[in-house]
Design a protein that fits this description.
Layout lengths: L4 H5 L4 H14 L5 E2 L14 H12 L12 H15 L8 E4 L3 H11 L5 E6 L4 H7 L3 E6 L10 H4 L6 E7 L11 H16 L9 E5 L14 H4 L7 E6 L12 E4 L2 H14 L5 H12 L1 H31 L4 E4 L6 E6 L15 H12 L1 E2 L1 E2 L11 E5 L5 H16 L3
Parallel strand pairs: 1-11, 3-4, 3-5, 5-6, 6-7
Antiparallel strand pairs: 2-8, 7-8, 9-10, 10-13, 12-13
Helix pairs in contact: 3-11, 4-11, 5-10, 12-14, 13-14
This protein binds pyridoxal-5'-phosphate (PLP).
């Protein structure tokens, strides 16, 4: 292969692979409940009307040239206010970096902090950290979590891996589980990071936390917690990832932001400047105005979250009902984001055609074919292929789609021996 080793060894997103398979079946006429991609069907979950109008207005006003490399000042000012108001976090506009969605900012965090071979710790399941480790030639250490802690990592699980690590990648509410840190869980993790950094010499790189809180406004009655609010001394060591993709159902609008110590954020800005991963200027102008109106944002969030939660609850209750009927399934109570964690414990069973379901991918494809219902196995999030847990993402389906899907899953599971 006459391409780079990096290009040659890249692993494509497994989620997109399953999603493509589903789309191909749909193209051939199959009607499938697609609970794969962490995206929204705009006909079911449209972006806020006022945001759409602001975007159109900004284009009409001619905001079509390069934005500043760190994002337009009015947007960074709005973000400063939002951080103070919603999270009681004090940051300056120079601590904030805007980009074309949050992905480039995650990549920039890795690039700014991680040297080839550096240890990066992340929980499994979690979203895409394995890929960012590969892109930055990091030594990724996936720490397996358990259902007893809602698949959130604990201090006890992480502690043995902290020595010599450069980055701890955390996310709450977590993709793929839809679960969240409790205050006590995150406090304990903060304390072991502080302890680890105290043990390092002045010439050593400290241990940083990347805290992805892109789903923090999509919670269902649970309090979102974050490292610096809990332990202010972590401010020098924490890089936050956030943006509008999920909380405003705006995955295609492409506005995200990171914030953290200026000396790191300025390096991230320099890296992304070369890549050119700015958010489009008109979208930045629109988000600056839209997000500054708290009442408007809260109104949208109230109805959006009600709609998201109705779908998650329907699915959760449907699986609990199947469980009481004796099916080998389970579900974890949804706390935030757009995901539900489902257990479908049918690895090792045989289909009516005599095919053995050898792993979670086999179970998934059986359900796609037999129940026209597509999920993503946790193996796509760093877990073993024998793990019987799956992510259901509700953004691409209506409530009715979910209602219709549950009896199909029941029938398909009943056929397995
Ligand atoms: C935890 C998490 N962070 C970041 C992203 C990426 O967001 P964006 O679309 O803003 O790049 C996603 C998308 O699925 C996500 O789940």
């Amino acid at each position: 292969m006459n391409v780079s080793v990096l290009a040659n060894t890249l692993i494509g997103s497994e989620i997109i692979k399953i999603g493509n398979e589903v789309n191909e079946m749909k193209r051939k006429g199959a009607k499938i409940a697609n609970l794969t991609i962490g995206d929204f069907d705009p006909s079911i979950f449209p972006i806020p009307v006022e945001l759409k109008e602001e975007i159109v207005t900004a284009y009409n006003q001619g905001h079509t040239n390069y934005p500043p490399a760190d994002g337009i000042l009015p947007l960074r000012e709005t973000i400063v206010d939002v951080l103070a108001d919603r999270y009681q976090l004090t940051y300056a506009t120079s601590d904030i970096l805007v980009a074309g969605g949050s992905r480039p900012l995650i990549y920039a965090t890795y690039l700014a902090l991680v040297d080839p071979g550096d240890k990066v710790i992340y929980p499994a399941p979690s979203w895409n950290n394995n890929h960012y480790c590969h892109l930055s030639s990091a030594n990724g250490v996936a720490v397996e979590t358990t259902v007893e802690n809602n698949f959130m990592p604990t201090a006890a699980q992480l502690k043995p891996h902290l020595k010599g690590a450069t980055l701890l990648a955390l996310c709450s509410p977590l993709n793929p589980t839809g679960t969240m840190f409790t205050k006590a869980q995150l406090e304990e993790i903060c304390d072991i990071v502080i302890e680890e950094n105290k043990s390092r010499g002045a010439d050593e790189k400290p241990l940083y936390i990347m805290y992805d809180q892109i789903y923090s406004l999509l919670t269902f009655g649970k309090e979102h917690v974050n490292p610096v609010s809990l332990r202010p001394e972590l401010k020098d060591y924490t890089i936050y990832i956030d943006g509008i993709s999920k909380c405003l159902a705006s995955t295609g609008v492409r506005v995200g932001w990171a914030f953290g110590p200026e000396k790191i954020v300025s390096k991230m800005k320099a890296l992304l400047g070369h890549i050119g991963a700015w958010a489009p200027k008109a979208e930045q102008v629109a988000v600056a105005k839209y997000f500054a109106d708290k009442g408007q944002v809260d109104n949208f969030l109230a109805s959006f979250k009600t709609q998201v939660q109705a779908s998650l609850d329907e699915l959760y209750n449907g699986f609990q009902q199947l469980k009481t009927e004796g099916f080998a399934v389970d579900a974890v109570v949804p706390m935030g984001a757009i995901y539900l964690t489902l257990k479908i414990d049918y690895i090792g069973k045989t289909t009516p055609e005599g095919d053995l379901l050898k792993n979670s991918a086999d179970v998934n494809f059986y359900l796609i074919k037999e129940a026209q219902s597509a999920l993503v196995p946790f193996s796509a999030f760093g877990n073993d292929e024998n793990m019987p847990w799956f992510r259901a993402s509700i953004g691409g389906c209506s409530l009715q789609d979910i209602k219709d899907m549950l009896p199909r899953i029941k029938t398909a599971l009943s056929k397995l021996k």
